[in-house]
Amino acid sequence: MLSLNLPSASLKIADVSGKKQVFDILRKKYVALTPEEWVRQHFVHYLIRHLGYPSGLLANEVGITLNGCSRRCDTVLYDTSLSPRMIVEYKASDVPITRKVFSQILRYNIVLRVDYLIVSNGLNHYCCKVDYTTGTTTFLTSVPHYSEL
Fold first, then answer.
1. How far is CA 81 from CA 39, 50, 66, 112, 144, in A?
2. Strand order of the sheet with strand 19-24?
3. What CATH number corresponds to the domain at position 50?
4. Do the domain assignments include residue 37?
5. Which of these, 20, 48, 88, 93, could form a disulfide with 33 (CB 3.0-4.6 Å)?
6. Which residues constitute the domain of residue 64?
7. CB atoms within 10 A of CB 29
8. DSSP 30
9. What mean pLDDT is reported for the chain?
């Protein structure tokens, strides 16, 4: 897999029936190693190991219902009362981060109403803070440490 703009992560990779799988530390099971999953696993390790995010407050593939349709948020961070605080959307490293990608995470946020939105393709990472009082969204220069949320 491609090198990413993230710290290296020691991922457990297995070959199951000729297909590569990676151990997801949040779901606690092996999942198909797709280019997007490669980004997700590195980013989750980055959040936990480098930015102090508690693994017990993170969840991958969180199901939501949007306009009567089932959707899945790639990763959601919850606060200690289990209210959603952050949505992270991943794309494979060869997929550019476009307005369409941001539209996707904004639609998910209609349901979850989180304070932080992150989009990453493993090479470029964009984080913004949503202020519901003023109705503004501010792009941050980096992903905040958990203690800064």
1. 28, 23, 23, 14, 20
2. 13-16, 19-24, 29-32
3. 3.90.1570.30
4. yes
5. 20
6. 13-148
7. 9
8. E
9. 96
Closest by Cα among 36, 54, 41 to 95? 36
Q: Is residue 122 part of a domain?
A: yes
Are 36 and 94 in contact, with CB atoms under 8 Å apart?
A: no
Per-residue pLDDT at 2 exceeds 90: no
For the stretch 56-92, pLDDT in tens is 999 999 999 998 999 999 999 999 999 999 999 999 9
Q: Quick one: pLDDT at residue 1? A: 67
Instruction: Express each pLDDT in 120-131 by its tens digit.
Output: 999 999 999 999
pTM above 0.90, yes or no: yes
Count of structural domains within the chain: 1
Closest to 58 in 3D by CA, of 125, 128, 149, 137: 149
